[in-house]
Design goal:
The protein has 184 residues and is mainly α. The chain has one domain (2-173). The chain is built from 8 helices and 2 strands, in the order H-H-H-E-E-H-H-H-H-H. The chain has helices spanning 2-24, 26-34, 38-65, 83-99, 111-129, 132-137, 148-166, 168-183; strands at residues 75-76, 79-80. The protein has a two-stranded antiparallel ribbon. Strand 1 (75-76) and strand 2 (79-80) form a beta hairpin. The chain is globular. The relative contact order is 0.14.
């Protein structure tokens, strides 16, 4: 059970660190200036937390498998609780928050809450997709050949997040040109 608290502590610490970095330093102002579009900023923050969480989770699971203390699998009543469970719970909470228009930019909602929800979305998505092969095969294939499906899912979804934040201006520019050409 100590592992559970350690993972939660690391997740909270990582979230707080990213929030402080984005909200309490010049980096947050720079992000706000360089990416003025609020949805793109949320996509950027979500992709950053997604990739950082994925790397951290892979490192923790590697430490568990190689019996590096203090890490071990979460067991509750003899049942192994996979980290995708925490990812799904986080995604459900973020989805509910966004349905309630918390941090989504509607009615000038808090920039802080928007960043928090984006970070949590990236964390939840990474925890869930890191075990994509588990839901696909309905058995634990994390380090097996079939586990490669999780890596593929992470790459595809991470590319979607990155394209949404970094590639949006490219798509908007071509859309405007196409509309202008259609009018001629």
């Amino acid at each position: 059970m100590a592992y559970t608290w350690l993972v939660l502590l690391l997740a909270v610490a990582g979230t707080v660190f990213l929030l402080l970095l984005l909200h309490g330093t010049a980096l947050g102002s720079t992000l706000h200036e360089r990416i003025p579009d609020r949805p793109r900023r949320r996509l950027f923050v979500a992709s950053l937390s997604f990739f950082l969480t994925f790397g951290g989770v892979r490192a923790v699971v590697y430490a568990i498998v190689h019996q590096i203390p203090p890490f071990h699998f979460i067991q509750v009543g003899g049942r192994h609780i996979h980290h995708l469970v925490f990812g799904i719970i986080i995604l459900l909470l973020v989805g509910y928050g966004w349905l309630c228009e918390i941090g989504n930019g509607a009615d000038n909602s808090s920039l802080f809450l928007g960043r928090l929800m984006s970070i949590l979305y990236g964390v939840g998505a990474a925890l869930t997709l890191d075990e994509f092969a588990l839901w696909l095969n309905l058995k634990d294939v994390y380090w097996a050949r079939e586990g490669r499906a999780s890596i593929d899912a992470v790459i595809l979804f991470g590319a979607l997040l990155a394209a949404g934040s970094w590639g949006a201006p490219l798509f908007k520019g071509t859309e405007k040109k196409r509309v202008r050409n259609d009018k001629k």
